[in-house]
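Bug #77: duplicate submission created two jobs. Keeping one. Sequence:
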Amino acid sequence: MNMESTKQCDCKGKRTCLLCEDSLNKKATDWYALFKNLDSYVYCWMCKKIFKGWDVITSCDDHKLLDDGKKFSGLYIHPNFLTPEESNEVVDSVDSSEWDLSQSGRRKKNFGPKINFKKKKLRHEFFKGFFESTGFVRDKLTTIDFLKDFKVVEECFLEYEKARGSHIEPHIDDCWIWGERIVTVNTIGEAVLCLTKHFPTYPKQYNIDCMEEYKEGLIGELQDEIADDVLIRIAMPANSLLVMYGAVRYQYEHSVLREDVEGRRVCIAYREFTKPYDHMVKHFNKSL
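Kept job's structure:
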């Protein structure tokens, strides 16, 4: 029997999901309990402010009885980027072929270059093009002023499922190759993005040191100081677009708790190259 075909998850190391935690008696990190001990805030995309609280904000009406809030930058949110019909069209197209297993209870489909992050090597010759059926989504990104010069070099479909305990642990996307703007297009399902201060466990974690090469050209400003015990929660409703940049991109780790995933969620992550690798975009122009 092909053991690969019978695998239920692709969790490695400390990564776990409900399936492997049950079958292998693995102990998962309780991020929910840890985050509940932090000083939590919720973000209002209309006011561009954070307010004390845990339950996420989807309308200004949600914080009328809260404090005056604090300005918070590094997020761009478009609540109705896709129509429900477009979101269903994306999911139907992606579901027409088999998903690949991923860690922490997720499944994925990835279209982009082959990358070795540890050795900092990129191989574009393996790139065969982006997902054909989502060309209209990529085109739609360029209609947003904030993304008019965004050149897609990776398109990654991610599926979260409550029954698998899908989540993603706190992390920062690699800073050697992936550029400042990290784009997420939410299709079906809802979730919450959590931001917590980044505490480096070793000097070059996430290759953040590479950011110094292009720091002067960043779109968003970095923060002088970030409180150690603060959690910021941001709603990610169906059909919405969310972009992290500036301080949110480089000074906070982002995560999605399994407790914040209801039913099934499918999203698309889009990435651009860092400035030093802009010259490589030419290898992807045929699909842009």
